[in-house]
Amino acid sequence: MSPHTTTCPELLDITDPDQAHWIELPSYRLSIRVARRLARTRLGEWGLSGELCADAVLLVSELATNAVLHTPSVRILCGMGLVAPGRLRIEVHDHDYSGLGLSRCEPGPDDEGGRGLLLVEHLAESWGVDRSRLTGGNAVWATLTA
User: How many C-beta neighbours within 10 Å does residue 69 have?
Assistant: First the structure.
C-alpha cells in the first residue's frame, strides 16, 4: 500500500488549500519514516523556520508512532495546516474505536520508549485528543507557533 496525499483544508479549518496537506498511510512502522519525510518536504515548501520545521517533524513522527504502535488501525491519516501566519496545526487520525482516548505512560529511566506524549506536551503550544469525524477513532492534534 502506498501513501495517498491530498489537500483538504476544511478538515483543519483552513480556507486556502495550498496551506493544508494530508497523507493517508498504512499502519506500518515504515510509514512513520514516510510521514516524517513528506512532512519535512511540505514544511520546507511553506518556507517555515528551521526550528518550527524540526519540531513539527518530530511531532508528526511521535503522533504517527503512537497511532501505528498503540491502536488497531489499518491506516492512519496525518494532516498539517497553516492555521495562521507562523502557526501550524498537526493532526493524526487513527481507528481506535474504544473511546478510551490516550493513556499516559510513566517511563523509567532505562526505558527506550514511552516519552512521545511528553515530547508533544513540551514542544506544542497546545495539544489534545478528540473523536475523529473522519475515522471514528482518535484525532490527536497539536499546534506550534514560530
Answer: 13
Q: Print burial letters for 6-21: b (CB count within 10 Å at least 16), e (below 16).
A: ebebebbebeeeebbb
Contact 61, 113 (CB under 8 A): no
Task: HSE, CB side, 13 Å, CA atoms: give it for residue 38.
Answer: 23
Q: Rounded CA gap, 41 and 43, in Å?
A: 6
pLDDT in tens, the chain (146 residues): 344 444 443 455 666 777 888 999 999 999 999 999 999 999 999 988 899 999 999 999 999 999 999 898 999 999 999 988 888 999 999 998 776 555 555 655 554 555 567 888 889 999 988 888 888 899 999 999 97
What does pTM read for this prediction? 0.82
> Looking at the DSSP assignment, which residues form a beta bridge with residue 90?
80, 142
